Every structure is written in C-alpha cells, then in structure tokens.
Amino acid sequence: MFLEYIPGRSIIHRLDVRSKVVAFICLMVVLFLFRSPAYNAAIVLAVATIAAAARLPARKLWGVLGPLVPVFVFIMVITGYTYPASMFTTEAARRVLFYSWPGRHLPVSTGGILYGLTLLLRILTMVVASSVLTLTTPLDDFLQLLRAMRVPYEMSFIITTGIRFVPTMERKAAMVLDAQRARGTMVETGGMIQRIKAYVPVMVPMIVDSIRMSENLACAMLNRGYGATRNWTTLRKMAMRPRDYLVLAACAALTVAAVAAARCGYGAL
Amino acid sequence: MAETTVAHGRSIVEVESLSYRYPKGKTPTLKGITYGIDAPRFVAIMGPTGAGKTTFAMTLNGLVPQFFEGDVSGRVSVMGMDTQKFRIQTLVSRVGLVMQDPETQIFGITVREDVAFGPGNMGLPPVEIEGRIPESLRVVRLAGYEGRFTSELSGGEKQRLAIAGVLAMRPEVLVLDEPTSELDPLGRDEIYAAVDRLQREQNLTILAVEHSSEDIAERADEIVVVNQGEVVWRGRPRDLFCNAPLTMSFGIRPPQVCEFGWRLYELGLIGQRDVPLTASEAADLVRRILKGRSIPRGVSRTLHEAAPDDFSPVSPPPCQATPHGTSGYDASSQMQGGPGRSGTTTCAPVAIRVEGLEHSYGQTTQALRGIDLEIRRGEFVALVGQNGAGKTTLVKHFNNLLKPTRGRVVIDGADTRGETVSSLSRRVGYVFQNPDHQIFCSTVEEEVGYGLRNLGLTPEAARERVREVLRFVGLEAVADRHPFTLGKGERQRVAVASVLVMKPNILVIDEPTTGQDWTGAEHMMRLVRDLHRAGHTIIMITHDMRIVAEYAERVILMHKGKVVADGTPAEVFSQREVLRSAYLAPPQISLLADELADVGMLPGVTTVDEAVALVAAALEDGSQGGTPLSGTPQGGAPPG
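^ inputs. structure came back:
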C-alpha cells in the first residue's frame, strides 16, 4: 500500500510519536521562514539525512517523488514569468535573466526562477518529511496519539479496520471482475458510457457482499468483546525517553534561532 | 481455569426449551431445544444446511437474541450466566465463538495486533496480554507469526488466527461454526490438530458445527443432530455413524468405512453391531470374515475398468429426487462432430493442450513451473492439490483470465494468445466457487441471459436458449425469482446456468461442493455428471477426494506449480508417497485398502462399491457363500 509503515530499529523509528509530530510541525514553520533557495536546500539536505538515518528505501521515496517532476519544472517556469524583478529585495534577485520576446517583452526574472526553486524545495521537504513520519511510525502509534488527544476509540477503530480491509476488498473486486469477464462481460472495450455500464455487474455484487460482510464484522466485533470497557488496552504505550526530550529541546532551539535569523533578514530573496 | 464451576456440579451449558424466530422469519428457526453439557467434552453439532445449527451456536454467546433480535422463548445459560441477561461482551470472556468466514473476524493489521484485540477490549493489563499472544498462537500452531501481516496469511492460517484471537480471551467454552468448511485438506488437519491440543491441554468444552463425519468420528465425545430447528438425535459417534441409514436420514453422510460396513451387514456378512467406525476396525473385521482367504486378482482388474461412470453413491441422499429429466438441451449439438458420450475419450480430439506453461505473479512468485498437459473432449478431470499449488492459476489460462509468462495454451487447436476472455467464453465456461461474486440481476432469467447480450442473438432466440438451460439445471420454476431469495445450492446452479448459456464445450468448475451439506453436494455433482454426459469436457477443482473417486475419470494432482501425478483416480490415489508429499490424503476407504494389502486389496480401491465388491468376490471365490460372522444380525433383518 501507499506509504505503509516499514518496520525498523533506527533512532527515528524508536522516537516517540509525539516527538516526531512536534519535530514535523517545527520543520513546517521553519520551512516558510526563508525565501532563499540556498536556505531551503540546506533544509532538504537535513531532511534527506534524517531519511537516510531511518534507512528508508530510496526507491519507495522516488516512487512518490517521480510523478512530481513535471510539476516542479512547471512551477519554475511559471514563477520565472510571473514574479517581476521589483518584488525582490536582494541585488541578485532583481536582475532580469532574459527576455523571451524581442523588444524587452516577457521578462524572466532571476528572482522568479530562484523563488520557483524555493517552492519546489519546500514541496520536496514536505514530501520527504511526511514520508519519514508515516514510514517510521506504526499506525498504532498514531492511534495512541489520537487517544491522547481524546479522540473516541470508535474513530480510531474505524481507521484501522478501514485500512485492514483494503487488501480484502481489492481481492474481492478482482474475483468479481474475473467472474463477470468469464461469462462474456466486456469491461475493457467501448466508450465512456459503455465502460461505466459494464461496471454495474461488478459494483452490484461488491455492494451486496460488503453489506453481508459488515454484518459478519459486527458479530465478530462483539465476539471479541468490543465495547466491553471504556478502558481498552493497547500494547504500545507512548513513552517519552531522554532522547525524546533531547529532540524536543533541539526542535525548540532551532525554531527560535530560525525565526530570529529570518527577522534579521537572513535567507531573504 | 481455577474456578472450575464444573466441580461444583453446575452445568457448563444449559439450554431449556429454546425457541427462536428471526424478525423476518416465517417459521421459527429453533423449536424447543433442550440440551445440556455438564463436563468438558468435544461435541459435534451436525445436520443439513438450514437446520438452525449456526443460529443455535449464536445463542450460546448471546448474539441471538441480543444482536439478531427476534421472538425468543426459553433459556440458555453458559457457565451459569443467562445469555439473555448478560451483555455479549461479558459473555465472550467465558464463551468464545468463531464464525465461518475468517476474513471478517480479523481486525489487526499484524497477527500480534489481531490477537491482542480481544484481551485489549477486555481492558486487561498489557503484561497479561503480552503473555497471552504467544500462548494462543502456539496452540493453533502459528508460533512466531506475531509480526506477519494478516492480509498475507493463507485461508487456513487466517482461520487459525481467528481461533487464536478468541482463545486469547481464555474462554472455558469454545464454539466453532464450520471451522474447516472452506479449507483444503492440510488446513483441515491443522485446525483439528489445534482442537485436539485444546482438549488435551486446556480441558476446554468445544462445540463444533461440522459437516464432515470422517473428521469427527474418532474425536467427538458426543454428536448432536439438529434438523429443522430441533435436536433430533444425540449420542456417541459410533451409535450414529455405524447405523448408515439413520445417519443418511438426517442428511449426513456417514464415514466411508461405516458405509462399507453397513453394506457388508446388508449382504448378511456381519452383524449390525460389527459395523466399524474406523479404518483399522474395518480391517480387522474384513480379516475375520475372510478367514485366511484373499481377494482374487482378476476381479480387481475388471472392476477398475468398469468403474468410473456407471455407479452412483450407495443410496441416494434423502429428499432429493433429480428434478431434471432428459431435456431438449443438447450440448453435443455445438460440438463439431465430436463424440458426445464419455468413456470414448482416448480417440476424441484434444480440447486443451498446455505446453511448457509457466506463470509468475510479479517478479518473485512463480505459480506455475512448466506444465505440459493434454485434455481431450468429453473427459471428466478432477484437479486436486493444496491451496497455492497452482490449480486456479492453471485453469485461468484456459479462458485467458491469465496470460502465460512462458509457454502456450491451445484450445480446440487455436492458441489463446489470439483470443480475448469474451471470445473464449463461448468455448470455455468458468464457474466460480462463490456464485454471489457474479449475481447482480433481479431475476434468475435475466441473470442467466446476461452473457448473451454480446452475442447478437434475436430476443426470441436468446429467451429460448435461457429457457433451455434453466430446464437443464432444474431452475425453470424459479426463473422469475430474485436470485438472492434462493438457497446457496440454487444460486450455484444459477451461476452454472449463466455460463452454460454461452454453450461452451469445456466447463471449468471451481470447488462446486465447498460449504455445502451432503444433499447439496450430491445434487450439484449430479448436475455436473449430467453435463458431462451431455458431452461437456469437465475440469473440476475440488478438495473432496471422495467426490473425486466417485465422479472423475481422471485426476491431475498439482503441487508447487507442477503436475506431480496424472491418471485415473485409482492410479493417482495408489501413489501414496506422492500424495503425502503434496499433503493430500486419499479417500478413507483407501486407508482400509492399505491395511488389507496382504490379503490382496489393491491400493487403487477408492470407493465403497469397489471395496464391497472385492470382499464379496473373495468370499465367492473361496467357499461358496461366506458364513455370517456373528450369527444372526442384530437389530432386525437387513433392509433391501
């Protein structure tokens, strides 16, 4: 599944979910303080180092990032044209890089290109950082967090059960599709309307089956004592360790430092 | 458990004149059941489909009537707790219920999380839960599976996990509703190994709803037969199964050796009390009758040649007459001059040729590793093997649902590469195991006619064809009904009809009898045989070796993506080593044949009829007319 937890023993895996979420929020704040691509590149480098420390498979990350490449290029082009040189404060950024039409028309500003670069570096940071968060944290930990935030058990139960049944439903859909194709239903040909019509024979058995399953599921929940007590136990207990406090302190210090630096004009464009 | 209520004389299960009607039910599902268990034991609940077994099981932990509301009267108490007064969530810590479909009973994303779900709901301390997880998994032989993803388990493993999840709540009574009906033979063995262990180590009271008499004949302390909502019989397995007609009258198929013994009794060779329950008892019995004589060789040979087509089960199951006589339906009309009747298969043209077929899912899993096969027109082939052996993967190549990774498949002389699934659907019909995965129309007639839409027939011609097929499968009377109002057996016929309407010569039928009681299974198999006789080439996937022995002409045994044995049932079932390595057991009567090898019983004996005929022949061959073993038969003159 997309961005599923990858078990591991790295330092990032072992951090408390709260430390990770706080660090994530701090990162997002810092990310929007600086407009200079150099500063944002430094942040990307830092996040990439963390991803490497968590031993995340590069291929999985690329699977998420790859489709975004055209978007990145598009952003740079757009910002290059749309941000006039006058918008920027630094000397370098105010220069016009070139004119794309004879007679000093359609200028492309250096600042615009650089700002585009900043935007894509920010997206890159967010994608990598959220991947690090979800790939190193089991679902159970997030549920614990929800519980600590006083979100009802029912809510978190729905989330887990929903995720648990994704592969089941996928398998069922494949079986139904096969059964219908085997009796001559053509699903892969015809126009738009025909295709939608062809899915009726797939959707109806799926819905009927889901209703039946939901009844069984309700029985099974009761069989396992669901709702017996409000104080249900989960095996994972959130526990702050010294390293978590260290991470929190570091996050606080870095964020404050970053805010101060930004106010002094560092990282401007 | 420490506080064994049993010791204080209180009963474990107490049911007093329990009646129940579902909210929309016309008639009560349970009618005045009175029943009790006062010492830990293993009880098998048997009876035909629709008898009320599942409903009864659900009364034991309060699901009926607390979840399924309805009219209820009478009283049920388990471990001293009234199941109508205590909450289900409270009851489940004493009574565990495992239902049929494991898929909807698994909540965790990993095995560990799933086992922890029940104890977690009970609010037990984490340390306690941590201890229960490996313990419960060990009993069901899933030790070390803690970190596995539940979505990646096999059907048998899921079923055992469902049991472990309930065991983790440490119930004193365990109720299992058809725990093995969807499983392959290895899966069944594993479940029963777990049940044995539970009884031995934990002294649990286990109630299991079960269709297979052979699995429980030696295990159950007691059998309770439920029919039409009432307890109609209760007692030891021996007293039920060894009286074959009595067992059959309840719609239950007795173990093969019991049928065998009863036939000997009917022939006047043994007394009624001598009817054996197990294969080894049966072997001792035969030795005593034969008194040193042995089975003549010639008899066995002629028997096998005559065998496959022309015998029916010992006696027809109760209340089922074949509703469909001969009809206008004639499958051979669309065969290009092919021979209609079975039995002449050696000279028939090749229907399916498989050459060097390999198939891989993704880059790692190789499901088929080089299959070479030839199936001729009019053959009746049973495809057997464990789940994951590659049976379904193989047959899905016959109608292009899967494409070969390497090698090729030729149907009626044409490579499937040039075809589509829908073009092949006119030559290869594929009936899936679960009819509910395809039913979507609001009448049987519409459902069956659906496939004809793309064939360009006139409405009259299409209607006529649907009628013809409905007549053949015996569904004419329900043509206007909504398919979902029909029983499972009838829905399965709808599925068969909807494939048949395309007039394919080749029929692939995936587990046609799974989850059905004996009557339903026999009914279905008679339809399959009629289809075969009408000229269809049948390829049937099944886990029921008894059905294979009685109906199929040829058995193909698959293991780990390869064909490991191919021949007549007698030939394949004789290869005990091969069967064992593929985790399959031959029909029970073959085990008897093994024990009697020294007196000339062939290992290829797979049906009761063959075994009886051989014993009778031995007696005739020796002294004329064997003398009855124990004088006059007890319990009245033999019927028939």
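The domain at 5-241 of chain B is CATH 3.40.50.300 (Rossmann fold). The two ends of chain B are 52 Å apart (CA to CA).
thumbs up if we can close this ticket
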